[in-house]
Design a protein that fits this description.
326 residues; alpha+beta; Immunoglobulin-like; 3 domains; five-stranded mixed sheet; binds dinuclear copper ion
Amino acid sequence: MRRVALVPALFLAGCEGWQSATDPGGPAARELHGLFLLFTISCGLVWIAVMLVLAAALLRRRAAEVRPEPERRPTLAVGAAVAATVLIVTGLTVASYLATRSIAAAPPDPLVIRLRGYQWWWEVTYDDPRPDRILLTANEIHIPTGRPVRIELASADVIHSFWVPGLSGKQDMIPGRSNSLTFTAERPGLYRGQCAEFCGLQHAHMALHLIAEPPEVFERWRDAQLAEAAAPVGAEEEAGRRIVEGRACGACHTVRGTQAAGQLGPDLTHVGGRAYLAAGMLPTTRGSLAAWIADPQTIKPGNNMPMIPLTADELQAVTAYLVRLR
Ligand code: CUA
């Protein structure tokens, strides 16, 4: 399942994507994985060596108690241990420096994406020199394979941390400060990410999905996302749109092309096309949309989405409308 290029197939199969620092999908993650292996193996060997020397010393001491030997100064052994320690620590420091330098290098012509952390979701903005091509979405980042991506990180409330282990290291998202992280995805796929800094009650439920796809697929996705929301088809979806515009939904959420223009919650213009709802909590289906809207505080206690009283028919209409916003 892991190296399948067809992301839609992954979604259909219910795969959450892989979230593993030991299975790098690009050069930055590979540097970190190499560093991880180097440190783990070197420190493991040092530990084994220390344990062997300790065991030898204990055995010798026991033998010496039975048959005393003339005292010898262990100058050579101590000197060798100090030299080995200096060499190993220096080697690890140099390897760490080289890996960090390679990760921090600024490649030419990166795709710039702005990511803003909220309790507990991610706002994603694709910058573009043309203002009409600036794109706002949430919780799901699409990137082209083979092209460097620079993620500019900010926070709207508390400290969060961006971490997609299959592609890069971690970087904090700090209110009032801008950080950035650059990486490239070499192979297409669905990479799961996770907020890596405790940020409140639902920190563990602040996931995001990063979808790396061939450049032409990415461009098609981007063009489709720039379009306004799909028009409702039929009376039920029409009723759903009226509820989204006229009741509390539109006060917090934007659905471009309608009167819903709130800025507090995730943009819903293409919510039906995203794999997950509520920052990775539920797969996007009509049923999970209904469950989420009917009682968001039971699914994700403490989040900012209030419960809007809707009749069963109204809930049906809203979900019929939202699930079609692809
Ligand atoms: Cu956001 Cu933890």
